[in-house]
Design goal:
Number of domains: 1
Number of helices: 5
Helix content: over 70%
Number of strands: 0
Structural class: mainly alpha
Largest sheet: none
Strand content: under 5%
Radius of gyration: 25 Å
Length: 171
Amino acid sequence: MGFRASAEQLQQTLHTMPVRSRVWLLLAIFGTFASLTLWSDASTSASGVWIAAWAWLSGLIGVAYAVVGFGYRSLLPIVVALNVLGPAVLYRSMPPRGEIRPLSLDQTQLLQRRLQIMAFVRTATTLLAYGSFLNLLRIEGGRSVGAHTEIRLAREIHAALADHDWTTGGN
């Protein structure tokens, strides 16, 4: 199957999904991209607020590209602009980084606490994304099993009706 056919099949699948499933999918994509930023920015000197802002922006950009992939191609220029301008604006609005100096005992303890909080937030965000993917699979798997069950039942009814001898009232 070629790329174009595969993309069209994906779009058809997404458009047949209930809104609830699409929301879970977007939440999973958001959490995945946000958690990647949290994993990569844990050792920076940026404040927690700036790291959270980068995580939100990364999650938003991931969702925006997914929406374009879902078939809303007309949004691509807006998404590219968000991808280019969002980080540039956020980076420019961050306070300047100071020089690196040895840490006092209090600063070391604050840094250790910050790293513990970041580890918790990274793990929670990653688990949110993973849980969202699992919930999506549960919902869509249930729909698929239900549809296959209905098809199997219809096939069995059809076979029983086709095997029945309607002229004599029996088999």
